Fold this protein.
Amino acid sequence: MSTVVFLGGGRITSAMLAGLRLAKTRDRLVVHDRNPGKLRDLKKRYAVAVEQDLNSAVKQADVLIVAVRPSSVREVLRTLGNALGNGIRSIDRPLLAVSLAAGVPLRLLGKLLGPPLLWTRAMPSPLCRSGRGLTAVTFPRTLSRTDRKRVHDLFASFGQVVGIPESKFDAFTVIYSCSHGYHALATLARTGRAAGLDRNTALLASAHALADGIVAWRVGKDSLESLLEEAVTPGGIAAATATAMDAAGYGRAVRRGVAAGLRRARANAGK
Ligand SMILES: NC(=O)c1ccc[n+]([C@@H]2O[C@H](COP(=O)([O-])OP(=O)(O)OC[C@H]3O[C@@H](n4cnc5c(N)ncnc54)[C@H](OP(=O)(O)O)[C@@H]3O)[C@@H](O)[C@H]2O)c1
């Protein structure tokens, strides 16, 4: 059994803990956060050990998950560096560290806090809560196969894992967000209400419209092009709707949104 320590007990930590519990992980799970209320809640919901003291938390870690917001990474790593400098654990024992911080590159993490930490990055989503997540991982060239496998297996316990070169990590982060689905659902359902449907029917129709076809495409063998052709009768309602959406700048809106996300990721690297 090894001990996985989370620094930061917020949204993504909560989702990962749920996914790990669902998968009946044999790892010991420990969470450190500066908010005692969040720690109490996580302890109650996921039966994890909690540590208000950063030193005690890090002392126990075989794998460290850095799950604070990008703007907090510097502060946390500075405090952690001081703790390591004060000998809270043997410096000759490497510590596998996984940063979830969007946009913050490996070279900056290594600059902020070098050995004994061995840095990797991972990008999960809150969907890991259901065991159906997707996580991108990226490793430095020097990381051993054993350490790569350790990180891969941790995230594979709640969904699919894909290796992505770090140069493409921000693009993956922006495109792979379950918020795209929620955003589309909220927008389509709002429009359905404006068109006269009650809230529940608008949500039901929108959720089926957006999700079911995509799930069928994922599990089936048909190409996206053939499914689109099947669903859109020339001269019919779906064709009129999609054509008008494209003409109104649907593609442009998505491109602009993605460009803004990429700019945000680059700004995070400078924080
Ligand atoms: N949410 C997602 O879906 C998601 C998905 C993938 C990756 N990520 C990444 O994961 C990281 C966390 O995101 P999140 O949404 O989970 O953030 P969050 O909900 O804000 O959680 C971060 C937690 O860390 C705590 N914290 C910050 N600085 C700390 C410190 N010095 N010592 C102890 N605790 C500290 C925060 O406390 P305060 O509230 O007091 O600051 C907060 O409880 C981010 O870097 C994000 O890019 C998030």
About this structure: The longest strand covers residues 117-123. Strands lie at 3-7, 28-32, 49-51, 63-66, 95-99, 117-123, 133-138, 159-163. The two ends are 36 Å apart (CA to CA). Residues 68 and 76 are 8 Å apart (CA to CA).
